[in-house]
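Final report, closing paragraph on structural work. Over the funding period we assembled a curated collection of sequence-structure pairs, and we close with a single example.
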Amino acid sequence: MSATAKAYTGGAPPLSCAHRRRRRGGAAGSAGHGLYFDGGSRSLVAVGGRPASPVTDLETSMVLWAERGEVAESRALWLELIHSTAAPGAAVAQRLIEAYARTGQFEELARVAGEAAARGCGPRAELFSAAVRAIGGAGQLEMMETALEEMASQGIAVDSATGNAVVSSYSRFGTLSDVDGAYRRLKRWRVLVERDAIRSVAAAYIARRKFYLLGEFLRDVGLGRRNVGNLLWNLLLLSYAANFKMKSLQREFLGMTAAGFSPDLTTFNIRALAFARMGMVWDLHLGFDHMAHLGVQPDLVTCGSVVDLYVDRRLALNLPFALGKMDLAGRAPRVATDPLVFEVFGKGDFHAGAEALLQSAEGRRGTQRRRRRWSYSDLVSFHLKKQYRSNQVIWNY
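Its predicted structure, as stored:
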């Protein structure tokens, strides 16, 4: 046992840096950490002289030691707590599990989960679920499977949070075969795949450009699900737009509206980016009319699809007419499109340049008395000037 742990068992418990400052006479902090060790009474008291709860301070110190990677000190306090009359609750055990996950102490994490379940520190399903999510979120797939086997051996059913966390972990750190196996196992558990897991699986397919498999997965999940909004339909449209299958894109868009789903900004921007890359100006304008009819407000991605298309085709003089149909006057520039769209199409020249300009202006906010408020027209004018200058040829003689 380390010197700090010995000091606790024989006298003062290990305290945080703020606690040690208070022992030296420093200023008191928040009420939750205003504790110090009184050498005369050999007990924890509050800064104002009121008695403090030793258990609460031990729990805080234990998590602090774990976050610093001091396993021995944290372990000593954990053993003291679980063998005391006031055993820690599930929330404390979960905090310790998360702290060990952040510092990479996965073996200690699994030990704590098992001891907490054995000591009745909380519902076993809740404790093992926290361990599975923490281990899987760190990419330790084999240890995650071990924890799942331990759950099965104790007769603990996998709940929705745990099952979806398993699918998300394999989507982030596994192969596509692992992803498919995790999803099929989720169905065997009779657990419904939720939004975050759907996005993780979609990101895995998109990263490997497996758009056909993405479409098959979405149809298997069920395009008629209402609890995830337009996510499934938007991802299906994205799978067709990625390969510029314009007829299939239009067919599925009509199927989406026929099924009772109202297109949102991401839906329109997926189509707008595909139309712009294919040079389909008329279809692009029809999409803007549809947006205005439904009251969907455009963003930088919508504006950028028009600007990039018109600049590439040397139609910049017609931009005021095209942008006038979007009703951008008086609106602050924003990006409200699903980031998965950028994983497929990337960011256009106008979009990337405008975002960099807005971030630069935001970064100078504290150094200027008046920060310039950029509008869509300002960003378009700046982009056109930059394009004009880049096209100039300077001859040096």
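The two ends are 78 Å apart (CA to CA). Residues 36 and 312 are 68 Å apart (CA to CA). We thank the funder for supporting this effort.
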